[in-house]
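Annex B. Sample input.
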Amino acid sequence: MHSEPPILLVEDNNDHAELILGALARAGARCHRLPNGDELSHYLMARSSPPQLILLDLKMPGRSGHEVLKWLRETPDTRAIPAVVLTTSEARGDQEKALLAGASGFEVKPSGLEPLRELAARLVRRWLVPNIDGPIIHVITSDPDVVQLAREAAALIDPKATVGILKTASELTGGSRDILVWHRSADDDVKTVVQMAEAPLVVITEEASAALIGEGVDEVLPRIGCTASWLAQCMRHAQERVRLTKLVEERTADLEAFASHAAHDLKAPARRMSQFGELFAANPTGENAETCLHYMMEAATTMTCLVRDLLVFAQSSAHESLTEVEASSCLEESLAQLAGPLEEVKPIVRIADLPSVVGSHRALVQVFQNLVENALTYRDPGRALIIEIGSRLRPDSGVTLTVSDNGRGIKRSDAKRVLQPLQRAASDVPGTGLGLAIVTRAMRSMGGTLRMASEVGVGTTFLLDFPPMADE
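Annex B, continued. Sample output.
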């Protein structure tokens, strides 16, 4: 008897539903489809256990997706179920409304089959695998003794580990796993298994071959004399080796990109100062002397601002001592620091009552200051700027602060890029491209996260998710 499908799809469009169900099946996930939100409550009541994920369309007959989200989050038995909006709408208003209503994510339906399959695989990896109690360990072997050995080793790593057995390497497919153990026979192709592993790979051979290390194999041990504790130790080593390797690669890539961008951004004003300095030196009393000095001072100011922001960016990742912080006090301080720009632009600023959050006063002031400054910088010159700061309590008792503006908005294709250091949303306005990167790192230092809903020509809402208060 099959267990209940881990995913529920609430989708009224039959063609869309067929494509999504096919993409999820290809990703290895079973899904039950409901045609509208009205049937969802009845179905959930009839299930013996809650689903691991709900995929929810917005525009449906009867109750809309937003109304279904509200019901899910207000009902104690369904409050904790992850619900991801899957819609054709790219409107900022829909994104913002869904996220504030408690959506766990917001995804726009891709137009092509391959992008849809990629999205389905990403959703399965993101939402299904973490809900499994223990690690997933796949074992390739036809030897029953190795099967027993692997099960004992898995139990030593984690009693809740899930062990899947494949008889041959040819049965290996892509998918979610935490460790792959391969009892290698002479005719198996190492490169093929390495490419399909997508996880730390431990190889058991009839004769240990250290030469396999470096071909994508993380640990090798001989079949003869192999014990469960030895195999478990190798599995742990493989996981740690892969974790550290990925961490080094990611940080090296980030450092190289950061150094490259920083060097480029510092080089431009330095070159400008040099060029106009040479012109000034050649004729310090000429008619262009004042112009040369003006451009030299302008370039020096640009360099000063960039160096200042680079220092703030470096400090924003420092470990923070987390305490209960009054968000309203932090906002008041940040607005005082921006008194000059605010007086110049004269935006309409609407501030709701803000609760206390778990965080750092210094870091939260930094977050508010950069988000308000970002709104001032990327305002729409065709209308008065409106900045709104509010909050809401999440079902997990954590707090989400929101900072919204009616500025230019950010393209969906640029949403991830602009959160990286020295990346700007537009080149026709002044700035160092570090503001949102500082916010991201400051939120991370406080144990929180930054989310964003934006639409070009409408504006942007930043959602600052803070962890729940610790129980007394």
